[in-house]
Specification:
This protein is α/β, with parallel strands linked by helices. Helices cover 28% and strands 31% of the residues. The chain is built from 8 helices and 11 strands. The strands form 2 sheets. It has a 7-stranded mixed beta sheet with strand order 3-2-1-4-5-11-10, with helices on both faces. A 4-stranded antiparallel beta sheet has the order 6-7-8-9.
């Protein structure tokens, strides 16, 4: 297995302020409902169950889960993101325990029935910190608790890398340049976004890359952390029935949908 012992934390630049969301855009409400609709039966969540939402960002899934009756804790490193999440939970009239913290340095102990790590955050860290994240998830779960970890598919991401210019949809003064990055020796692929404010000339770099693990590597990592990999879900459109799916309904991710053409690779893990 290729190893990467560096303590690279360039991801901190990405989530330091709200510029990231001008590039990424926010999930529509129906997409959030669809994601959570997949999570509930897959994790076999019971009403009132305790859920940890890692990298909860603006609180999208935390708030939806809380609205459905779960006891939710959202952990997020970015303080600006947390400010927005707390305000939105208040506006939605739901209670979520939002905490500031680093998922690579968690200290939860057998507290949760389920953990979700959604949105392709896993893999952005060094090999050492990716492993620490999995270990923290295992510690955070109660015995036989489950985790869903959304990861980049090794086969799909490198094919999507490209260079492009575009303006932020709602702000024609913000120019975004996206350039693909490849580090084959470290098995890291991704892109760097340069945000240029044309009114002030200010430039900001958002370097995003993922350590793309092969599935056998991931199986070994989760096993070492104290987890069993019990399912891998994907979204290959040639296999998964997206034609009859409607937004707002649970996403039809399926085990048989994980192929080399799948954009998603969602791991279902269980604490031993």
């Amino acid at each position: 297995m290729i190893t990467d012992s560096c303590s690279d934390r360039s991801w901190e630049q990405v989530f330091a302020d709200m510029v990231y969301w001008k590039f990424n855009g926010e999930l529509p409400a129906l997409s959030i409902a669809s994601n959570v609709g997949f999570m509930e039966p897959t994790l076999k969540l019971g009403r009132g169950g305790k859920v940890l939402d890692l990298g909860c960002a603006l609180g999208h899934h935390s708030i939806e889960l809380a609205a459905r009756g779960y006891d939710v804790t959202g952990l997020e490193w970015s303080k600006p993101f947390l400010d927005v999440a707390r305000q939105r939970a208040k506006e939605a009239g739901v209670s979520v325990r939002f905490l500031h913290g680093d998922m690579t340095r968690m200290s939860f102990d057998s507290e949760f029935d389920a953990v979700i790590l959604w949105g392709n955050t896993f893999g952005m860290f060094s090999d050492e910190d990716n492993a620490k994240t999995l270990q923290g998830i295992a510690r955070a779960l109660r015995k036989s608790g489950s985790a869903l970890i959304d990861t980049q598919n090794y086969m799909a991401l490198p094919e999507r890398l490209e260079k492009r210019w575009n303006f932020h949809d709602e702000d024609q003064s913000l120019l975004l340049l996206t350039e693909g990055t490849r580090d084959v020796l470290r098995a890291r692929f991704g892109f760097t976004v340069t945000a240029i404010d044309l009114s002030s000339g200010k430039r900001q770099r958002l370097p995003m890359s993922w350590r793309l693990y092969l599935l056998p590597e991931l199986r070994q990592l989760v096993a070492t952390a104290g987890l069993d990999l019990v399912g891998v879900y994907g979204d290959d459109p040639n296999v998964v029935d997206w034609k009859n799916w409607k937004r707002g309904e649970p996403c039809p991710y399926a085990v048989e949908g994980f192929t080399e053409k799948a954009g998603k690779r969602i791991l279902l893990c269980q604490r031993r």
